[in-house]
Design goal:
Bound molecules: coenzyme A
Shape: globular
CATH superfamily: Gcn5-related N-acetyltransferase (GNAT)
Radius of gyration: 14 Å
Largest sheet: 7 strands, mixed
Number of strands: 7
Number of helices: 4
Amino acid sequence: MSDLRLEELSATNIVAANTLTLKPGQEQFVAPVSHSIAEAYVNPSTAWPRVVLDGDEVVGFIMGNFDPDSPHDEFRGCIWRMNVAASAQGRGIGRFAVVALAEEARSRGFDRLTVMFEPGEDGPEAFFLAVGFEPIGETQFGETIAALTL
Ligand SMILES: CC(C)(COP(=O)(O)OP(=O)(O)OC[C@H]1O[C@@H](n2cnc3c(N)ncnc32)[C@H](O)[C@@H]1OP(=O)(O)O)[C@@H](O)C(=O)NCCC(=O)NCCS
C-alpha cells in the first residue's frame, strides 16, 4: 500500500479490473465491474472510471459520475460504484480511492460528493461513515443516500 495510484480504465487494465473478487456476502451490495464498464461506455461524457493500482497490481475500482446538469441532485457529483479486492481490503485502499475522486470532484467545482448504498451488515455503510460521509436521505428503493462536503 506504499505505492497507490489511480489509472484511467484502459485496454491494459480492464481484464484485471473485471476479475476483482469480493469477500463472500459483499456481492449483493455492488454490481459487477463489467456493469460499470458498460455504463461508462454509454455515458462517456459523465462517467469517470478508474482502477486503483498498488505498484503494478490492480487492487480496486472506482467510478465517479460528474454531471452538473443532472436533474437529480444525488447524481451530479457522485461515487457511482467502487470495490476493493477481497485480499486488499482493510489497508486504506478504499479511503485512498474516495480521496482521489473527491479531489477530482473539487477540481471540477463540486462542493459535495454523494453516494448511494444498500444498508446492511456486510455493506459499505461503516466505510462511508468512516471516510466522512453523512446520511442525507433514502431512495424510493430503500438505499441510503449519503454526502461528503468537499
Ligand atoms: C467498502 C470497501 C470499498 C472498503 O474498502 P477498504 O479498502 O477495505 O476500506 P479502507 O481500508 O480504506 O477503510 C477506510 C475506513 O473505513 C473503515 N471500514 C472499512 N470497512 C469497514 C467495515 N466493513 N466495517 C467497519 N469499518 C470499516 C476502516 O476501518 C477504515 O477506518 P479508519 O481509516 O478510521 O481506520 C470494500 O469493503 C468493498 O469493496 N466492499 C464491497 C463492495 C461495496 O460494497 N462497494 C460500495 C458500493 S458503492
